[in-house]
Here is the input.
Amino acid sequence: MIIYFIKRLFEMIPTIIGITLISFFIIHLAPGKPTDVLTELNPKITPEARDKLEKYYGLDKPVYVQYGIWIKRLAKLDFGDSFSTDKRPVWDKIKERLPITILINSLSFVLILVIAVPIGISSAAHQYSLYDKVTTIAVFIGFAIPTFWFALLLMILFGVHLDWLPISGFKSMNYDTLTTSGKMWDISRHLILPVFLEAFGGLAGLSRYMRSNMLEVIRADYITTARAKGLSERVVIYKHALRNALLPVITILGLAIPGLIGGSVIFETVFAIPGMGQLFFMSVMTRDYPLIMGILTIGAVLTLVGNLLSDIGYAVADPRIRVR
Here is the structure.
């Protein structure tokens, strides 16, 4: 198992290089350059000044040379400096936004698990019942509603008409004057709508996936045998069926790890939350290549780590699966 783990870690290196290579070239194939953002709105910028800017950022070199320079920096865990006007290191910008994104996505992730898994199990255990039909309709409605549109509706209702919840930002303007408990409550109020909406969007998929897995498992022969022995339905479902039904869900949970760091571009942009999603959106709009590549590289690494954890989770959840 340890040898397999080490082998998988080394296999991740060429995969990451391949992902960064494709991402780097696709970004540079997109129309426009970072210097366009700085010069388009300034009529006084001459072609000579534009050339100097491109030389300053290294954009005058061929793309493969730029990639070689970038990959050398990455080998030293250096993501370079941002192309924005502050010219700060990319890693410093990511570190500032990371805690907020992890907090929001972790809360919504826990909320999805706590609600979706029991709904999926109970729907499968009571297939075609009124409860199953109601939950099926509810989750499909949740799946069909565009989240950004639903977010705007809730912002108008709870933020404008009822004035119960803030609709933008992560803290209030008087945050520094509040007590410790007041600061916690202030952040909590700002997080209610984003966390709810992000969990609402992911609830439908996981609950339906859990339901279909459970239905497949409870029709297996060993479940019929367990029932024939006179075991209660609760023991059959939660002791014999649940463990195997969770196996495919583990794959989804492993792949959800990058989402904890990558953030949600839509939610953080709509609610003006200073997280990784908003940072990625701004970096794309300003064509900030180092920042885009820094965020994409972190996402690629986490995706591969998530796949590795999924494989380990398989072996832990089902002793029949032995990874060699």
